[in-house]
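Work Package 3 (structural annotation) set out to generate three-dimensional models for the target panel prioritized at the project kickoff. During this period the team completed the workflow that converts sequence records into discrete structure tokens, so that structures can be stored uniformly alongside our sequence database. As a representative example, we reproduce one entry of 270 residues exactly as it appears in the project archive.
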Amino acid sequence: MKLQKYSKQLLSLVLGLVLLLSPVMLQHVCAAASNTGKAYHWYVKRNNEHKQPLADRQQAFFEKYDAYYIDKKHGDTAEDKVIYLTFDAGYENGNVVKILDVLRKEEVPAAFFVLKNILLNERSLVERMINEGHLVCNHTKNHKDMSCSSREEFSAELNGLADIYREQTGKDMPRYYRPPEGKYSEDNLKYAQELGYKTIFWSFAYADWDNDKQPSAEEAKKKIIDNMHNGAVLLLHPTSATNAAILGDLIQQWKAEGYRFGTLDELVAR
């Protein structure tokens, strides 16, 4: 009886470990499946010299699959200075409206990468984004880790959100996609391209997403300004109270420094 009891306890422990480790194990299986299926987590090596940051060798296949993280047409020595403002918006907490108010006042365009929640629950807010000249783009339906997704799962996430967008707005969603948390594989970029999407990463982002751990306005402005460069694609979260408070000052400083604000349509134009 004791042996059976211990055997059952051991079996329960093993099963528990399998369930606990299975996401990690699946990630390794996915990464090892093929070179094009290898999972990546996007990042760039920043600098405070106001020069375009360096990406690792992941970018070698970006051009092949219509993926962007920077405007290479506007490099460090270009006279025309441009910034691309992009926001990842999953919900509204009062700060998204404040961000839109600043953009309207400053007459600056932006791109908002959204999830199904904001489309279903904040229809008037999304319509305002569209009516004020912003692009409302695809951040997937459910904000899943897409790096191990099959072609069918990937298509369901992007097409599912695009369908909701069409139902809510009567319009077709602009074909720009941002991977949740910057997690992706080469296969993902290929799938997105096959669906007609351009994949948009970023050349600057910072820890602004946690509403309970917001950086101070001074700290945030310094970090953003120190890392600004020509051709920058900024990723900001519009739910951030700090971002809502400092965006106007940032835009005014950038304008004073000679920057203008581009759209994703310009970014991807060859």
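The chain has nine helices and twelve strands.
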